[in-house]
Specification:
It contains three helices and five strands; from the N terminus they run E-H-H-E-E-H-E-E. It is of the alpha+beta class. Strand 2 and strand 3 form a beta hairpin.
């Protein structure tokens, strides 16, 4: 059985919030958070999916929607599954999110701010 793992591109939310007013959501960010090496490097990172053995054996596949925050230091925080497939596949999606390299943080008014990101990961067996 051949395993094909596809993933959908990065879905960016244009929301960030600054340190002093953490409840304030800003709709436009001056400079979006950037992954070192750009979109190509980020796609390469997410291509390193390890399809869970149990899910592979049971023929489980589908799309996992993940949301996470890139903090003011460029670290990943608050990753959560918005819509999942199975416990095993969801854990793999979170593993990939948390194993990303440190990002270059977003900025607003010359200050680093937190920014949300969403990602779709498609787990497919063929």
């Amino acid at each position: 059985m051949k395993v094909i793992i596809l993933f959908w591109g990065l879905l960016t939310c244009c929301h960030a919030y600054s340190q002093p007013q953490e409840d304030l959501l800003i709709c436009k960010i001056e400079t979006e958070a950037q992954y070192p090496g750009g979109a190509v490097a980020l796609d390469k990172h997410f291509s390193k999916i390890r399809y869970p053995k149990k899910s592979k054996k049971e023929g489980v596949s589908g799309v996992v929607f993940v949301q996470y925050v890139i903090d003011t230091s460029g670290n990943i925080q608050e990753a959560k599954i918005l819509r999942g497939v199975s416990n095993e596949i969801n854990r793999e999606a979170l593993r990939l999110v948390y194993s990303q390299k440190k990002w270059i943080p977003a900025t607003q008014n010359g200050r680093k701010v937190k920014a949300y990101r969403k990602r779709e990961l498609l787990f497919t067996l063929q």
